[in-house]
């Protein structure tokens, strides 16, 4: 079950969106509003997995709301629904899951919500790793990537980065192979977190992530398999530059 908040200032459209989203299985609409400041307060209180919002809202725009919550709630997925095409670059910078131009294509909206549902449902497992003499519990959904370096394993996650003495191969056995991909001998990557890929030398590509200023690397031998896995799981374009 994922929790959603909806914000739209046009009354009839707000009711229509709410009715249709409420009809989707495993989605619970927690709050509905028609203005920006109320939306911001609701998101900070509920901490939903999904927010569906217009850009032009009274008091505070949808873009301003997302800018205010993005660092605090990096896992909240955002779907913008708007009449304005000119804000799409701003939405991309805020890592929006989708940007839908009115009149609403509901098939596209439903497909995006289904993808978001899969992300949270597939990633909800808790794994255990060793940190010195202690055992640390991690929600796999919070992992961006894992790196092996000098017989140590580094975890890069939503809330903290830390060192583990569980080997990379042992960690990989614990992870859901539908959403985690071993991009080289030294890296395991959460496919849902990938933002872009670019070539850095003859053998490697650099992987950038949503809301994380760290890089992982992909062997060029695995590029086409990696690209196909991304397309399958995300069902949307990913910026890739292999040359």
What's the layout of helices and strands?
Layout: E1 2-7, H1 11-22, E2 27-33, H2 36-46, E3 50-53, H3 62-69, E4 77-82, H4 88-93, E5 98-101, H5 106-122, E6 126-131, E7 134-139, E8 143-149, E9 152-157, E10 161-164, H6 168-174, E11 180-182, E12 187-190, E13 194-199, E14 204-209, E15 212-219, H7 223-234, E16 239-241
Helix pairs in contact: 2-3
Q: What would you note in describing this structure?
A:
InterPro entries: CheY-like_superfamily (IPR011006), LytR-like (IPR046947), LytTR_DNA-bd_dom (IPR007492), Sig_transdc_resp-reg_receiver (IPR001789). The modification 4-aspartylphosphate is found at residue 54. The longest helix is centred in the middle third of the chain and has 17 residues, at 106-122. The protein has a five-stranded parallel sheet, sandwiched between helices. It has a five-stranded antiparallel sheet with strand order 10-9-8-12-11, with no helix packed on it. It is an alpha/beta fold and 243 residues long. It is elongated and about 60 Å long. It contains seven helices and 16 strands. α2 packs parallel to α3. The chain has two domains: 2-122, 3-Layer(aba) Sandwich (Rossmann fold), CATH 3.40.50.2300; 126-241, OB fold (Dihydrolipoamide Acetyltransferase, E2P).
Brief digest:
With 243 residues, the protein is of the alpha/beta class. It has helices at 11-22, 36-46, 62-69, 88-93, 106-122, 168-174, 223-234; strands spanning 2-7, 27-33, 50-53, 77-82, 98-101, 126-131, 134-139, 143-149, 152-157, 161-164, 180-182, 187-190, 194-199, 204-209, 212-219, 239-241.
């Amino acid at each position: 079950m994922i929790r959603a908040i909806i914000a739209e200032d046009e009354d009839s459209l707000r009711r229509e969106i709410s009715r249709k989203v409420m009809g989707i299985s495993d989605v619970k609409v927690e709050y509905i509003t028609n203005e920006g400041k109320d939306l911001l307060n609701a998101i900070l209180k509920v901490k939903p997995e999904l927010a569906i919002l217009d850009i032009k809202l009274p008091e505070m725009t949808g873009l301003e709301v997302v800018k205010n919550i993005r660092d605090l709630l990096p896992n909240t997925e955002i779907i913008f629904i708007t009449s304005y095409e000119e804000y799409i670059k701003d939405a991309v910078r805020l890592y929006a899951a989708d940007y839908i131009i009115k009149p609403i294509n509901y098939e596209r909206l439903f497909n995006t919500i289904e993808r978001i549902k899969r992300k949270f449902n597939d990633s909800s497992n808790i794994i255990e790793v060793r940190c010195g003499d202690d055992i640390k519990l991690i929600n796999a959904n919070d992992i961006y990537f894992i790196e092996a370096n000098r017989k140590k394993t580094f975890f890069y996650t939503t809330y903290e980065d830390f060192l583990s003495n569980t080997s990379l191969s042992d960690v990989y056995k614990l992870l859901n192979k539908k959403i985690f991909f071993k991009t080289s001998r030294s890296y395991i990557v959460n496919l849902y977190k990938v933002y872009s890929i670019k070539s850095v030398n003859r053998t490697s590509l650099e992987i950038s992530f949503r809301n994380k200023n760290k890089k992982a690397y992909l062997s060029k031998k695995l590029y086409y398999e990696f690209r196909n896995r991304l397309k399958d799981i995300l069902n949307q374009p990913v910026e890739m530059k292999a040359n």
